[in-house]
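Researcher: Re-running this chain for the archive, since the previous output was lost when a drive failed. Same request as before.
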Amino acid sequence: MYHTQLPDPVRVLVSAGSRHGSTKEIAERIGSVLANRGLSVQVQQPQHVLDVSEVDVVVLGSAVYAGHWVREAKEVADLIGAESPKPLVWLFSSGPVGEPAKPEEDPVDASEVQEITGARDHRIFSGKIDKEQLGFGERAILIAVKAPEGDFRNWDEIDTWANEIADHLVPAPTARTREDVVARERG
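Model: Regenerated structure tokens:
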């Protein structure tokens, strides 16, 4: 069961599992766009999300490592899956890097997370690699897959997606023609 009628303002939780901070920055950007559209937004790290019963919408994301979402983000997905009614959910993954972005495949567990949460959409955004922040094992994987270092996040693409979410949640203003205003004044 899902929420059928949303309150005003809509309460939105934005959370993203992030090991080195770049996916967290995407979540913060999405939260900012949604707040600017008049939604009541809180951005929290997944390990601080203990309950989703007080929100209407969850935008949940995760960095993707070796094709998988991070554990903390999957735990929030499990919280959502256990909730009744479920909040409305949008998902995003961050991880592919390079031009063109690699890997091209969806994260291994993205469809499972989408099924658990009943998400309306799942987007994949390019990520950022700063080798200075990586551990030995992570650097070895990067060398093996020949992943380039750099920031490949497309902020315009992220903003557009966040605005698409807001378009679903914020009622469009009613069109007012000159005739509508005159008719209302004569009333």
